[in-house]
Amino acid sequence: MIEPGHRGLLFNPYRDGVSDPAGGLHDLVLVPGAHFIPEGARVDDFDVTYSTRREPLHVLTSEGIAIDAEMSIIYRPIITELYQLDAEVGPNYYAEVIGPEFRAASRACFAAHSITDLPDQHSKLEEEVEANVRRRVVGKHVEIASVTFEGVKLPSEIGERQKLQRAAEGR
């Protein structure tokens, strides 16, 4: 049984494993519903709905100051490329592809920003990280829907300095 929001790939060890649907065997990508599965075969199940992962990040700013931030990414596999995703990466594609690329893109983008600019740069940072992740996962059979900035924990001395500076500026 394939649940709504999922697709399955039929793996039959007696018929060349998982066959490429592009090779004319389109019935091997199983849509939601009940399917007859031959004895000894299995179905690799893929959730094709959008999923969200929150990543705690320990990053450096352009000044080299270490901060803790949190960002989220919304993603899903490209349905028409499930066979390639399964053959090249496998069902653990977040841990193998998206997660590492997301963390690397986030570190690179934070390193391009000053710690004093971070409170006012959330949207810009989200756009930069999203574009960077999309570029990094091209050809990896996944779709990136969006990236969101969830928050940052500044070192206490930086946070106090920013509060004083804002108070002095009348904000």
Notes on the protein architecture:
By secondary structure, this protein is an alpha+beta fold. 32% of the residues lie in helices and 28% in strands. It is built from four helices and six strands, in the order βββββαααβα. The protein has helices at residues 82-88, 93-111, 122-136, 156-169; strands at 6-11, 29-30, 42-47, 51-60, 66-77, 142-153. A three-stranded antiparallel beta sheet has the order 2-1-3, covered by helices on one side. Strands 4-5-6 form a three-stranded antiparallel beta sheet, with helices on one face. A hairpin with a 5-residue loop joins β4 (51-60) and β5 (66-77). α2 (93-111) packs across α3 (122-136). The radius of gyration is 22 Å and the shape is elongated. It starts with 5 loop residues before the first strand and ends with a helix. Mean pLDDT is 86; it is low at 20-27.
Report a brief summary of the structure.
With 171 residues, this protein is of the alpha+beta class. It has helices at residues 82-88, 93-111, 122-136, 156-169, and strands at residues 6-11, 29-30, 42-47, 51-60, 66-77, 142-153.
